[in-house]
Amino acid sequence: MLWPLIKASLPAKSLLLLALAVLFWFAGFHTLLGVVLFLALEVIMWRNSATYASQDFVYSKDILRLFSCDGGQLRVGMDTTNIRNIDKIKLWQDQQYGFIDFALGQQLQVRYKFPLEQYQPLRLWLQQHLPATNLETSLALN
């Protein structure tokens, strides 16, 4: 898709604007209208595909290395938030993987899948370090 490249890159935006100006100069208004229509369809299609892509879970070989707790702050990978900001954590498993899903602040979503043998250690770690957080799990708690 063309839109993610254009959206994130200032040189790509400049080149696109230059190309549109050249098309308008040589081919007239109708060609410019066609290009704008094409880009509008591209944006619409990109937004739909971005919604599906955001539903994906990132695979982690060692999920416990991503989590750390220090002085009331929870760190997941490179992102940090106050423990009080986390209301609910969803933790479940299927035949091969464990999954974790929760909001880390207002704009960040933590969505990982990891090897199934790390499910119980992660559940215990979360219970120990985040006792006030609602932990929704697919396993019965002991």
Structure in words:
The structure is a single chain. This protein is of the alpha/beta class. It has 2 domains: 3-53; 58-137, PH-domain like (Roll), CATH 2.30.29. It has 5 helices and 8 strands, in the order αααβαββββββαβ. Strand 2 (67-70) and strand 3 form a beta hairpin. Helix 2 (10-27) runs antiparallel to helix 3. The N and C termini lie far apart (48 Å). Mean pLDDT is 81; it is low at 50-54.
Write the element-wise H/E pattern from the N-terminal end onward.
HHHEHEEEEEEHE
Using DSSP, what is the number of strands? 8
Q: What fraction of the residues are assigned to beta strands by DSSP?
A: 25-35%
Mean pLDDT: 81
Lateral strand order in the biggest sheet: 1-7-6-5-8
CATH class of the largest domain, named: Mainly Beta
Write the layout of secondary structure elements.
Elements: H1 3-8, H2 10-27, H3 29-53, E1 58-59, H4 63-66, E2 67-70, E3 73-76, E4 79-82, E5 88-93, E6 97-104, E7 108-115, H5 119-129, E8 134-137
Parallel strand pairs: 1-7, 5-8
Antiparallel strand pairs: 2-3, 3-4, 5-6, 6-7
Helix pairs in contact: 2-3
